[in-house]
Amino acid sequence: MTIDNKLIDSLIRDYQKPEDILGENGLLKQLTKAILERVMQAELTHHLGYEKHSLAGYNTGNSRNGTSKKTLASDLGEMPVEVPRDRQSTFEPQIVPKGHTRFAGFNDKILSLYARGMTTREIQAHLEEIYQVEVSPTLISNVTEAVMDEVKAWQNRPLEAVYPIVYLDALQVKIRDGAHVQNKAIYIAIGVTLSGIKEVLGLWVAQTEGAKFWLQVVTELKNRGVADIFIACIDGLKGFAEAIEAVFPKTQVQLCLVHLVRYSLQYVSWKHRKEVAADLKKIYQAATREEAERQLEKFAEKWDRMYPSISQSWKRNWERVAVFFAYPAEIRKVIYTTNAIESVNMSLRKIIKNRGSFPTEEAAVKLLYLALRNISQKWTMPIKDWKAALNQLSIIFDGRMPVR
């Protein structure tokens, strides 16, 4: 729609400072109010079928019946508007529907703030400070509550038949149970599609992290359409790998190196941390399994006196770690440098930390879903060097790659 510049010049003739346009009583707010009211009057004319004061309206059985007041919440602050009525109360404005007190998009702002970990009180204060709009806690709860239907549909959506790589992990959240706060496990699955795009496959809550529940998770993934997973990256939880192999027997289970390194470093004092990390790097960046085993022995000789649990942990999990060394560089790079689950968990932990604890499991799922939705909006491009990795995957997993 083209706007006449002469009209704009006329409107800003008395402009002196930004507040004249953007302020509480500025031109933009007045203009928005005037346009809304004019549009609603035009909608009423269309509804009645005749212009105001037109003789065509006589004896039609319905006519204009003044206006009612409504206050809208908007980016420009609270805006009182006059909503026209008809005598039969059959008119429903389209631009400002009945029952709506917020412009389209205002709910999205509430959800965006909520997804960043802000509490109801913080959202209230933010909206009042930025937009001069008073929003009740009930309204915020209602807006966020409506997301649960979206969560249920998302959690039950069909999935792709093949995911070359899937990352599985759980993080702990504090959830209130009566007078007590308990730690509960939030299970997350992230898949890499054949196109190289990351996708959150689902979100589950359980009392604790355990292989038995992971078996339920991977079974659900299969029931939702997943027929094959080439490589599953997991932590060292006992029985986890067996749970995956029970549902997807052809899947190669790879112990997540980021998890193992992070677990190892938690035993190390700050003055040795950098040196130990460098020595661990020599293990997982080795060209072959044999070289990695030699580096692990060197690590044990050097550090076992001070930190014996590190080499023991690597040796205990070696068969799951060693899977990594059978892959060519292209696949290794994709598995390690694009460890999607770790970067996602880092973002989620930051949001959870802001909230402290959640009143219910549903509140935790709601927030984490919105946060994941925000995160995944950035996943529009394939993983770097994905084509090279996919070519190698098609050779290693010959016969399992779908014809495209």
Strand percentage, roughly?
15-25%
Q: Output the radius of gyration.
A: 29 Å
Q: Count the strands? A: 8
Helix content: 40-55%
The shape is elongated
- Weakly predicted, low-confidence segments: none
Order of helices and strands: HHHEEHHHHEEEHEHEHHHHHHHEHH
Rounded to the nearest angstrom, the distance between the terminal CA atoms is 44 Å
What would the average pLDDT be, to the nearest integer? 84
Protein structure class = alpha/beta
- Please tally the helical runs, counting DSSP H or I stretches of 4 or more residues: 18
Largest sheet: 6 strands, mixed
Which descriptors apply to this entry?
404 residues, alpha/beta, two-stranded antiparallel ribbon, 18 helices, 8 strands, 49% helix, 18% strand, elongated
Q: Would you kindly provide a written description of the structure presented here, covering whatever features stand out?
A:
By secondary structure, the chain is of the alpha/beta class. The protein is built from 18 helices and 8 strands. The strands form 2 sheets. Strands 3, 4, 5, 6, 7 and 8 form a 6-stranded mixed beta sheet that branches. The chain has a two-stranded antiparallel sheet with strand order 1-2. Strand 3 (162-177) and strand 4 form a beta hairpin. Helix 10 packs antiparallel against helix 13. The longest helix has 22 residues, at 27-48. The model has no long low-confidence stretch (mean pLDDT 84).
A few lines on this structure:
It is built from 18 helices and eight strands. It is of the alpha/beta class.
